[in-house]
Write a structure and sequence with these properties.
alpha+beta; 5-stranded antiparallel beta sheet; elongated
């Protein structure tokens, strides 16, 4: 989604805005929902019904923790997690909600390239990937914008509109 001069809550304007969420990645949702259903089943069986769950049941307090984490926390995390990329007048802002955010000032960027990549082969999948001088922020797909920073780092930003994102960034350099 692109928006020209979209006002922000703090009075700041945004030249470009793109938000992507994990809702289209069916296999991730299947795993998360499968774990959640399993934890709900175990919780109901052991805590509500009062029958130990499994052949070597965990103590009730561990069942509570597992239920809170995998039954409630994980689905909530994946429900809100997403990549938000914004081009502002003074910076590029990459937010991987609710985990991290990175701001890159325009004078830090050396080169901008629209890039087709192999998420699994190059980065081990989608998400916040890579280490050291090569990082990737992606949610889905295999296209994005690679930033070559002047300090030698490379940052790949997954995008559903990489040409628009690259143009918005290049207009600030």
């Amino acid at each position: 989604m692109t928006a020209a001069k979209m006002p922000m809550n703090n009075g700041e304007s945004t030249e470009y805005h793109e938000a992507q969420y994990f809702r289209q990645v069916w296999w991730v949702m299947l795993i998360i929902l499968g774990a959640a259903v399993l934890m709900w089943w175990g919780f109901i069986q052991q805590i509500i019904v009062g029958e130990p769950w499994g052949t070597d049941p965990a103590p009730d307090w561990i069942m509570w923790l597992l239920w809170l984490f995998a039954g409630i926390g994980l689905p909530l995390l994946f429900g809100v997690m997403g990549l938000i990329v914004e081009v502002h007048n003074d910076r590029l802002q990459i937010r991987y909600v609710p985990l991290t955010q990175q701001m890159i000032m325009w004078d830090e960027i050396g080169r901008v390239t629209v890039h087709t990549y192999k998420p699994i082969r190059q980065f081990g999948g989608w998400g916040i990937r890579g280490s050291g001088k090569h990082r990737a922020f992606s949610v889905k797909g295999n296209r994005g914008v690679e930033l070559s920073l002047k300090d030698g780092r490379h940052i790949l930003i997954g995008s559903q509109n990489p040409e628009d994102l690259a143009l918005a960034i290049e207009s600030k350099l």
